[in-house]
Amino acid sequence: MLANELREKYLSFFKLKDHVIIQSASLIPENDPSVLFTTAGMHPLVPFLLGEKHPAGKRITSCQKCIRTGDIADVGDLMHGTFFEMLGNWSLGDYFKKESIALSYEFLTSSNWLDIDINRISITVFAGDADAPRDETSANLWKKLGIPENRIYYYPKKDNWWGPPGETGPCGPDTEIFFDAGLPECSSECRPGCSCGKYFEIWNNVFMEYKKTSTGKYEPLLQKNVDTGMGVERTIAMLQGKRSIYDTELFLPVIGKISELSNKSYSDYIKPMRIVADHLKAATFIMGDPLGVAPSNLDQGYVLRRLIRISVRQARNLNLCHDNLISISRTIAGIYGDVYPELMNNWNFIEKNLTEESIQFELTLEKGLKEFEKIISNPESICDGILSGQLVFKLHDTFGFPPELTTELAAEKGIKTDIEGYREAFRKHQEISRSGSDIRFKGGLADCEENTIKLHTVTHLLHKALRIVLGNHVMQKGSNITPQRLRFDFSHPDKLTDDQIRKVEEIINKQIERNMDIEISEMTVEEAKNKGAIGLFEGKYGEKVKVYKIGDFSIEICGGPHVMNTGKLGKFKIIKEESSSKGVRRIKAILE
Ligand code: SER
């Protein structure tokens, strides 16, 4: 079964079971500072898992674009990819364990759907701890459906608990479904979760009935939800009898292109070719997103920069240059063009940024190699035939030289590298930068703290006020809210003058003082547009959306939540205005 057919089958199965299909949200989370990328299908649904009403109802299904950067080090093995698609079905306070498990079972094993042999399925459930009880309910449900006791495993929180994706938010115990690839057990310890390739994890059903608070407690949620996720790449690999996600139609044309351009065979260069294919796919999707970003030294732009740089470095070993990277990215956009038309729509942006970044890094790499030569030929750098960890770190930090590359190059000259010393220098550097990122991981809409909600409402006022002062070309390009401040990115070519900033503040404070009520209604995107609503329309055609109206001042498509009246907001103040990327400005503001 090909990916197209799996997506189709999954969504139509859940539609038949009264779920409403929603489009994939952006890869860049809106209004949520707790993570840089959408990491799961549940991410855009966080406010609704916490109790907000979803306009599509209580049963939802989707195929969501996701990026997980925590797995970058594993890329190139059998099953890990940075970009992946997650099929999911959700119950927002509707059905719970019994129906969820029955639905999964039917979709997997029925001859009308995936028709998987039940003898190849193993299950894991939560073993229980001080925060939540052992999940005998799920285990019993699986047993009743015919899964024998010896294929049901009880695992602790680290394996069978999902979420929250940031520090706080909805979470709960899960039951995971594994497919047996038919290989012999690698050892007596081989069980679901083992990385030998025998067990594919294909589906995860999370029973989200808890909310993790900022003090680390697990409190019951207002409603009991189900959040499930099935990886498209893994599932089609399994259905096609392939051992690896890289051996399916979602990767093979890309690997084929790399092999053709480099004139090298895949079997001789498995890992570098997989890394280039994976990283360029993630980079293509990040730049091609409706909220696409360009490489930079900040947040998503920085991850993108790293993905491109690693690709350039690997590509160099395959004798590929920046032109070849563009052809590979184009092949990727071609594979996904029908499902994610944004890749072709934004192709010029992808091509321009990928070209600029890879040319620039090719030059940096040249310089880095020269620096390496200089360092290595200086007798003071080497002590007892070993290059110091500090210098290995400097090459990494300043020239993007990963320690393995330095080690390889040094080995060619008969010199060793102090990798322990490198790790120590790296740790010290992380401690310094972590103090900054800790702030980012606190709070967010996932918390639904009062201040966060207030700042969210004022973001709508800001969006409108900017359009009044600067013009209707102003569009939201990103938003990130913590309980302390809002950050709003928008399209505008020039720095704002002091006068413009003052005008925006004045307009907003005047609107706040008008004590306007905030009204919420639901309508189709077309109706919302006709009413003059602003907001992100892309990918939402035909769907019902929530529209927030602030008096007669602002009308915007948004998931919420918001305060009920502007009078509660306090005094609005812009604390910073700066460039975010080319053609995009960034405002940071507070409520006093
Ligand atoms: N959120 C869960 C996961 O990512 C289920 O979708 O595995």
Describe this structure in words.
By secondary structure, this protein is α+β, with helices and mostly antiparallel strands. The protein folds into four domains: 3-243, BirA Bifunctional Protein, domain 2; 251-360; 378-443; 450-591, 2-Layer Sandwich (Threonyl-tRNA Synthetase, Chain A, domain 2), CATH 3.30.980.10. The chain is 40% helix and 22% strand. It is built from 18 helices and 19 strands. It has helices at residues 3-16, 46-49, 97-109, 136-145, 157-160, 232-239, 252-262, 270-288, 299-317, 322-336, 342-345, 347-377, 389-399, 403-412, 419-441, 450-470, 498-513, 525-530, and strands at 20-22, 59-67, 83-92, 121-126, 152-155, 161-162, 169-180, 199-212, 218-231, 382-383, 386-387, 416-417, 476-481, 486-491, 518-524, 544-550, 554-557, 572-581, 584-591. The strands form four sheets. Strands 1, 2, 3, 4, 5, 6, 7, 8 and 9 form a nine-stranded mixed sheet that branches. Strand 13 and strand 14 (486-491) form a beta hairpin. Helix 3 (97-109) packs parallel to helix 4 (136-145), helix 8 (270-288) crosses helix 10 (322-336) and helix 12 runs antiparallel to helix 13. 44% of the residues are buried. Serine is lined by residues 40-42, 88, 162, 204, 206, 227-229.
